[in-house]
Amino acid sequence: VGPTVMLPIAGVFKVFGIGLLQARLVMVLYMLAALYTFYRLSETLSGPRVAWVALALLVSSRSVLFLQYGRQLLGEVPGFFFMALALYLWLSRWNENGWKRLSVIGLLFGLSMITKYQYLLFLAPTLILAWGLDVFYYKTSTHRNFLIPGILAAGSFGIWQVLSLQYLGPATMIENLALLRASAEGAAFNFNLAQLDNNFQQLTSRAVYLGAIFPGLIYGLFMSLSRTREGQKSSILFLLVTLNLVWFVIASIGWVRYAFLGLTFSTFFIARLFSDITDNFS
What we know:
Number of strands: 0
Helix content: over 70%
Strand content: under 5%
């Protein structure tokens, strides 16, 4: 859990005293902000009805457990908030953002990765692949639209590592990195055929949106094939979701919390699928 979680809670403890309630109030504020931001992102992409349905799926899913994780001192929901806010600012004015707004977007992406290191595995490749797709396929945007957020995100993450090194000292930093590497090898890079089947079964279970996630993702792929701005914006969310879920199936130890990012953003594609096949839910 990064400084974006620990420092606000430390500040609240300083003012109101140490207690579970004070800590959870900070987390609940993050959760409410994340829900609102996700609604605005979905509304920007597909209108209010799709946004409300996506939000309902998000808070009610037994696989995401958004409300449960949102009150605990974990990095999933705060990291999701920073990422959703960055995506909202980025996609709501696609290719019309000035360098200041793009810098803020990059900083928010960086804060998301600092909050939850696992998100680095999916956000960094998403930004690189999205840029490559624009160069060779969509051709609707500018290099600046990808380079400034990407450079600022990487820079923010790097600056935090330098600050950690200075504050903790080389010995403690090396020890922490060794612990992180050991835990990652056991939980995040676990290639096992038996585990792979179990992970896939989890994603196809009724707990995951009653089995609607794969039809939703297939529809998301078709949405992303259009060589338009709307298609390109959908492709960024699709890449983010797909990278997380593919990694979850192939390389993780199968804790459903490791698929948190992919499961949350996939609600948009599920809601959009049912919106289009029911004439905007009418």
